[in-house]
# Entry
Amino acid sequence: MGKYMKRKHTIRITGLLCFSFFITSCGQSSATSASSVIKEAVNTDSIKQIISEDNETTDTAIDVSDQSSNLTTDKVSNVTCSWEDSEVPIEVGNDNSKALIKDTRIVNSSYGTLLIMDFTYTNNTTQASDFINDSNCDVKPYQNGIELDRPGITSEAGVYDYSDAFTNVKDGGIINTQLVWVLKDTMNPVEIDFGIDSNYNPAYSKTLTLTGGKDIEDKQDESQETKESDYNISWLNDNVPEKIGNDNSYAILKNTSVLKSPSYGIVLVMDFEYTNNLDKARNFINNTPCLVKIYQNGVELDSPGNTSEQGIFDYSNAFTGVKNGGTLKTQLVWVLPDDKSPVEVEFGLDNNYKPQYDCTLNISEK
# Structure
């Protein structure tokens, strides 16, 4: 079971040189009484930032030598965060492997506003494991019911670095590392699932509240913009469903198109809005009630090897966890062997694990 402690405070770090850099810590940093003093001169290789909380301070070293000339006011974050009920989580895992939660904070980066958590990870077993793939120490944050994504690269100089989370550890080895996620906005709370129990449910969950932020424009429409079909398509007898699934989780079919892909030839692209009303997270592509299978000439078709191709398709969101009524726009994509044979589509599964709908899509050249 997860462990936590009651404590709540907000920390701001103010950088030196010709920029300001704010970080909000959410309750893990220890504090000792001291006056705020500058530990090193401006031109040294690293700058010791001073964290102040009322009359208590903690000295925290942050290496900004690589980014001192690049860090500008667009990195400033005035967002503060605190754990709901002032209960600060302190660890995740069990006796086999465990991660101590050292700090939680909000920063700005080239990827947007980030949630960063610092950990000390230990694996006491003889079988090597890396932190980021250790189910005992699983950490998954959600905002508006949608699982948060990590930045596209594992580090940004002077801002974050979670590359060590992929380093294998065994026999009691210990590493310090981070986990990092991109916030969807800086207003709505973040629910975080920690660990996993014997029933494969989260060991415990905590909520991180954000203040001082604002909504961020939903960019799903930009990345999932519907492209006009390169072929004429029609559903036999117009029997295509608008909605598949059940009350617990369902998907609404928004658009169907057949496109010419420079990398994969001819692809069938379906746009969906997926909703999961359960407390337990599910992703669309593995959600049985919303299963979609495609056949051409009696053979089941495969998806492209890459989850996206610029300007053609993007089904990466189909793997994103959704819960608590969250709704996500995504696509499903399949590679067609030819552009003449009809396509049979099985939508959803009923309680007897049979397709809810069996439809036929006809294709022809424009």
Summary: The mean pLDDT is 82.
